Amino acid sequence: MRVTFMGESGRGVAGGAKPFMGARMLLCHSLLTVLLIAVTASPFNNTRPGCPATCGDVSIPYPFGIGPDCSLPGFNLSCNDNASGVKKPFIYNVELINISLLPAQARVYNYISWQCYNHTSNDMSYSTWRLNFTAYPYRFSDADNKFTVVGCHTLAYITGQNQKDSYAGGCVTVCGSSESLTNGSCSGIGCCQTSIPKGINYYKVSFNRNFNNSRVWKFNPCSYAVLAEADWFKFSTTYIKTRQLNETNGGRAPIVLDWAIGNETCEVAKRNTTSYACLSEHSDCFNSSNGPGYICNCSRGYQGNAYLPNGCQDIDECTLKDEYPCHGTCTNIPGDYNCTCPPGTNGDAKKGTCQGSRSNPFSSVKLVIGIVTSTSFALLLLLCIVLSLVREKRKLMRIKEEYFRRHGGRLLLEEIKSKQGLAFKVYTKGELEQATNNFDKNRILGGGGHGTVYKGILNDNHAVAIKKSKIIDDYQKKEFGKEMVILSQINHKNVVKLLGCCLEVEVPMLVYEFVSNGTLFQYIHDRNRTSHISLDTRLEIASQSAEALAYLHSSASPPIIHGDVKSSNILLDDNHNAKVSDFGASMLVPKDETQFATLVQGTCGYLDPEYLQTCQLTDKSDVYSFGVVLLELLTGKKAFYFEGSDEERSLSSSFLSAMKEERLLQLLDNHIKNEEDMELVQEIAELARRCLNVMGEDRPTMKEVADDLDRLRKFKQHPFLQHNTEEIENLLGEPSSYTENEISGCYSIEKKAAMDIEYGR
């Protein structure tokens, strides 16, 4: 077994890894190490007999160990000198910072990937790293780590895998100027962070070198990317303006690993007494919450190391009065303690209510006074609670009213009254909580960076989809009510109908019609689907989706830019009719340039490259994204996938290369490689290529795309346009003397004439 900790570097093709992390973090780590040593310096044995208990200043608790027979399989460590000549434990070649038995975690150092640009020599140097724990019982903690990217106009990818599946993600940063950067803010301006899924045990970093920050911004020499402990990183503007991130601590950052014993559940592991790891008599087994395997812990009332025989020892609660209070006589027992009132008294000694039991002349009077006092106090307390509840309720109502006013609720209600017949409702927060069973996670239909969509059942048993967004900017708050009126009037059979909204919350919630058959993404990429998708169905879905987007661009008043066109935002009903969704209020055509940079975040694989350079969202941005959807329909591949080189992992890049090299056939879905339809498929592919032009002005409008797809759809539906040599000869009534090439030529002329008649040309 081995851990792979590798870097890839180049300057034009050259470079190397450099340091990361400041003196402040080193001080924190030193203090943490001292605390860990203090904790482990207990009378309880923490290692196997004859095995080192520490390496340098790091405690090594079993099941970890250094040397033969000192650890469980997969937990063997080595104790070597680090780069500073200090003894440290290593997991193969990865330096270990500390180990925690509960929670079952370890912290190690991880190298930072970077790319730098030299304006004097026009040289690019870079270093990218990957970390591989597939042969070890470790997973990168999804709760404690984040993928962090620092730089201007930087796009970095993270790819990884767990025992069942592969994963890819990314983060993109932009900078308007050096003044636009803010210390502590990591929301896309100079710094970006994203989460990782559960159970990843391998990851690799790569940069998209078409997004080079330093060539554009001379104040930003380098960009960085790393999977690291979330609490460790605090963004500083000096990271953008200097090379500070690769000049400290050996170019490393801490990363948190979850670990577990084996791949079995507790129930299965207990059956094999020779390999079961919870050896202490007073220990309990817990299934790991971060992947396969299990962990051990001492039972209640015991402490120590549950992985060692007799490792869990009884706690003497009587010596720990702060944790285990006793206002009487304390007696320690195995796993617990007894606390009794002193002789001549009774009550609860743990709560300190021991009282004398001897009778005296004043006992009745004291009893009455006690009862009256207690009753008065209880009534006073009850009154205070009632007043507090009334106050909190009024406060909550004021907050709801303020949110309602801030989001333009009064204007919205006036507009609804003035527009008779408008089927739009303003819901209360309580109505939507009841419809979703308090937003139960089992009601989740989908989600992403912008928010989560839940299935709701209203009081009239009508099913709806409720979108609970995560954030809304100040401009949208002011215009929200007015924009809701505009969006509620959108009426197109291929656009999901907006039925209403809830304004009495900090971020307004939207209520849409419910579409029952999932998303186009699921329909194309579902591995469990047994039947193939015909070219007719693909063309019908593409045509309907294009018509919906063309309607939003051209017929809505004012026009609406979708801003996040992708296959997961195209829903399908039971008849596979397409309905474009998630065209929220943030996508109205901007009225001034100040709105451009905040309108949309987009989705990796569908982003318009021109938008990333200019931060100006246009209707041609939707055209580019729709071109990627067309490619998904033609190829059956995802917008971002693992095949190909590091520079060609996006479907659009692979497609454009295939078109240029005349190898489109290799990329197509096997189910549409039909010789009859290849001419039609070629036309669809050419339309997709036009949509993917780098320059927006060279792309067709969405109306032109819809018209072209409608023309191709109608052509596919006319069987008399399907050329068949034998059928033509039968229609002529006698054997034809024409050659097959001549018949094909006649067919091409006939097809063009039929299409001209169909469309009035």
UniProtKB/TrEMBL annotation:
One of its GO terms (molecular function) is protein serine/threonine kinase activity. Residues 1-41 form the signal peptide. The chain crosses the membrane at residues 367-390. One of its GO terms (biological process) is cell surface receptor signaling pathway. It comes from the Eukaryota. One of its GO terms (cellular component) is plasma membrane. ATP binds at residue 468. Residues 439-721 form the Protein kinase domain. InterPro entries: EGF (IPR000742), EGF-like_Ca-bd_dom (IPR001881), EGF-type_Asp/Asn_hydroxyl_site (IPR000152), EGF_Ca-bd_CS (IPR018097), Kinase-like_dom_sf (IPR011009), Prot_kinase_dom (IPR000719), Protein_kinase_ATP_BS (IPR017441), Ser-Thr/Tyr_kinase_cat_dom (IPR001245). Residues 314-355 form the EGF-like domain. It is found in: Membrane. The keyword Glycoprotein applies. Serine/threonine-protein kinase that may function as a signaling receptor of extracellular matrix component. Binding to pectin may have significance in the control of cell expansion, morphogenesis and development. This is Wall-associated receptor kinase-like 16. It comes from Phoenix dactylifera. The lineage of its organism: Eukaryota, Viridiplantae, Streptophyta, Embryophyta, Tracheophyta.
